[in-house]
Design the sequence.
């Protein structure tokens, strides 16, 4: 018997099985699975993106701050163009003949058979007039888009703006292609993923000349765009608008926070600009004008400007002194209109002598903090000035200074707290002396803070030692709630809560003290305002006016910082601006009209240094 006789059946079965597998696979590919057929048809299909409307933006009280309005992109397919009336075309679109020729050449360079943008963001009015005669211009068609609109025309630095995707983004993020729009700054950028929605697509059959012949398979493979999600901000639109009004003809910022949550109630950068300037066909020209403006209206001062904190920083040094046992609430130091050490003399304004800690805040005594700061750095228990300085610096950092607070807006900067290595380079290793850096005692020297950091300091004092990272987002759709998690974390300073009471009392007396105080101008009848003035030295001109404040004293609802460049003493301009903001927020109205008129009529642009 032949042992190999049955092998022909085995081999035949294997070949038969392979043929069957191929037949089944071909049946699946050609009959059941349409995706391959669709892929093979790509060369005769046109995919038209359906752009979603971006989500709406509301303030904390449900007031609409940003909505959408239809706009129209005029597209062109060069191969389909026929001779047309250029003069009429130019008049309807407000273009020159040279611009039309240039754009057609650009479109041809891109592709003669594919569509590209000829003119962006036609207004509804322009489109309505053009649409009636669109049939005369073969090769042109319109794609509907949306542009942002701003009912109050305020809060430009908070809301931000939308712009066209650049090549770098288009190549690194698969969601975007050239011609798409994306959030460039503000909330539009921080919450782009939430606001943008999801694009849809409509598929058309086209001939060899890229002319549309109808929907592919009756729209079976089309997808509808998904509207972007709406967001609610922590901003109080009415307070924001009022703050911008107060800061007219002034350079500086206001940051107001709800201390119990870290929610930003108002974030004002002045000079501001109308957000509508960065919309539509004139956006590029308007942007360049704003960019070249010497007042820098695009510069977001609350997050990006860095100033010495001035005397407002005495609150921090007082708290560190209490924590380290260098001073007690009853500790007094002499002040003969200043602090003297050898040839060194630090001036102070006139007030009664031998103030305790609370009164030192009330009257903003420079000498008190020079003594306190030097006693801290020279204390034997730390072993050296360098060790004491590092301890002091770590305390300061715990207040959120010298680093980004994590505000949910782009472009926040660190501020600056000097390091030991800096002083070692200046004075030499191991040669630092407390008198060398005594200016830090009163918020001068190398210290730099942003206005949002100073507002956060005020919130920390309200909260007796903790804070939530300042933020502008209040409500998001559930699927994006993870983006809120960083703003629900309570962050503590290194100072025990028991030490804040005398500081708060000193700030209360600075505004309401019967024996005077540096901020009595900030008084509001019926509201217990607590505040601290500051004057930041400015080597380039008039000093900057600073004021931090909160109200009411018990269970504070608002904490804020006001910086007015070239405004002089803190009580001159910053304190009255802050008090008006507090009155507006807590009462909804302003009764001190004389106070308001003085601020509204002030033009501090005239005191800027001449270049």
Sequence:
């Amino acid at each position: 018997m032949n042992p190999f006789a049955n092998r022909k059946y085995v081999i035949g079965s294997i070949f038969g099985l392979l043929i069957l597998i191929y037949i089944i696979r071909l049946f699946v590919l050609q009959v059941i699975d349409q995706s391959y057929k669709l892929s093979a048809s790509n060369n005769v299909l046109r995919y038209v993106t359906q752009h979603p409307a971006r989500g709406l933006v509301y303030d904390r009280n449900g007031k609409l701050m940003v909505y959408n309005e239809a706009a129209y992109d005029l597209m062109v397919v060069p191969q389909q163009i026929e001779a047309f009336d250029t003069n009429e075309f130019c008049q309807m679109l407000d273009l020159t003949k040279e611009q039309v020729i240039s754009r057609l050449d650009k479109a041809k360079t891109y592709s003669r058979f594919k569509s590209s943008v000829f003119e962006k963001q036609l207004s509804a009015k322009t489109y309505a007039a053009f649409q009636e005669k669109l049939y005369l211009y073969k090769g042109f068609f319109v794609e509907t888009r949306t542009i942002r609109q701003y009912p109050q025309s305020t809060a430009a630095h908070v809301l931000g703006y939308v712009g066209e995707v650049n090549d770098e983004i288009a190549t690194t993020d698969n969601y975007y292609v050239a011609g798409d729009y994306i959030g460039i700054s503000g909330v539009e950028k921080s919450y782009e993923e939430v606001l943008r929605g999801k694009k849809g697509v409509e598929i058309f059959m086209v001939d060899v000349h890229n002319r549309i012949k109808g929907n592919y398979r009756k729209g079976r493979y089309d997808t509808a765009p998904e509207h972007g999600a709406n967001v609610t901000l922590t901003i109080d639109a009415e307070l924001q608008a009022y703050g911008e009004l107060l800061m007219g003809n002034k350079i500086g910022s206001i940051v107001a926070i709800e201390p119990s949550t870290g929610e930003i109630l108002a974030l004002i950068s002045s000079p501001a600009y109308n957000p509508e300037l960065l919309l539509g066909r004139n956006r590029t020209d308007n942007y360049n004008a704003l960019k070249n403006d010497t007042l820098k209206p695009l510069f977001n001062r609350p997050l990006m400007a860095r100033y010495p904190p001035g005397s407002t920083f005495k609150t921090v040094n007082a708290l560190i002194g209490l924590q380290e046992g260098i001073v007690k609430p009853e500790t007094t130091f002499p002040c003969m209109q200043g602090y003297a050490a050898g040839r060194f003399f630090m001036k102070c304004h006139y007030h009664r002598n031998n103030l305790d800690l609370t009164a030192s805040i009330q009257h903003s005594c420079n000498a008190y903090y020079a003594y306190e700061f030097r006693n801290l750095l020279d204390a034997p228990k730390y072993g050296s000035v360098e060790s004491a300085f590092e301890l002091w610096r770590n305390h300061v950092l715990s207040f959120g200074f010298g680093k980004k607070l994590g505000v949910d807006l782009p472009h926040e900067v660190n501020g600056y707290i000097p390091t030991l290595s800096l002083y070692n380079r200046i004075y030499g290793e191991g040669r630092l002396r407390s008198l060398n850096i005594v200016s830090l005692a009163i918020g001068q020297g190398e210290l730099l803070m942003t206005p949002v950091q100073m507002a956060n300091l005020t919130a920390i004092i309200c909260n007796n030692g903790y804070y939530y990272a300042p933020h502008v987002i209040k409500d998001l759709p559930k699927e994006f709630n993870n983006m809120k998690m960083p703003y629900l974390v309570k962050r503590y300073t290194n100072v025990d809560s028991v030490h804040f009471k005398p500081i708060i009392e000193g700030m209360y007396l600075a505004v309401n003290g019967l024996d005077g105080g540096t901020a009595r101008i900030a008084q509001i009848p019926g509201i217990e305002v607590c505040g601290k003035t500051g004057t930041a030295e400015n080597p380039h001109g008039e000093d900057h006016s600073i004021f931090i404040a909160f109200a009411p004293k018990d269970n504070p609802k608002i904490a804020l910082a006001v910086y007015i460049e070239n405004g002089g003493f803190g009580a001159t301009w910053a304190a009255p601006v802050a008090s008006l903001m507090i009155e507006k927020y807590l009462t909804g109205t302003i009764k001190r009209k004389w106070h308001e008129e003085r601020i509204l009529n002030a033009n501090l642009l005239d005191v800027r240094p001449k270049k």
